[in-house]
Amino acid sequence: MKQSLARIALVVKDYDEAIAFYTEKLHFTLIEDTVLTPTKRWVVVAPPGSDGCCLLLAKAVGEEQESRVGNQTGGRVFLFLYTDNFDRDYINLLHQHITIVREPVTETWGKVAVFADLYGNLWDLIEAPGK
User: Fold this and answer.
1) Residue among 9, 25, 128, 113 at smallest CA distance from 68
2) What pTM value is reported for the model?
3) How far apart are CA 28 and CA 60, in angstroms?
4) Which of 23, 35, 36, 73 is the most buried (most CB within 10 A)?
């Protein structure tokens, strides 16, 4: 048996501001932006060079979903962005004025820093050892 994760839904306030953040600041690729209804779109972004799981940017609808924007995991790191060049991508975070929550450290499993996206979701930026 073989399985894989294809999409992770990330609840956002606004499609266009989320697309702009991920494509302009993190340099993700916009894979798809399809209008489904006048108020709902199917928006998929992925890190550059990725052939794995993508983010589905899902606009919050209603008070309950809106309360989850930026805090889908109760303040824990939610997403893990692996890179082949930590220094390049960390410098990009700084140049883009992205909030660094925890400065870089080197662990046995790699170099890591924690940053927040435009809504406050926490991400690990990770480079595995030997890359």
Assistant:
1) 9
2) 0.94
3) 21
4) 23
pLDDT in tens, 63-89: 999 999 999 999 999 999 999 999 999
Cα-based torsion angle of the residue sequence 3, 54, 113, 128 in order, rounded to the nearest 10 degrees: 50
Measured CA to CA, the distance from residue 70 to residue 96 in angstroms comes to 19
Three-class secondary structure of residue 102 per DSSP: strand
**Sign for the pseudo-dihedral over CA of 105, 107, 111, 116:** negative
CA of 100: how far to CAs of 34, 35, 69, in Å?
A: 32, 33, 19
Task: Give burial (CB, 10 Å; 0-12/13-18/19+) of 85.
Answer: exposed
- Residue found under tokens 């994760």: 5
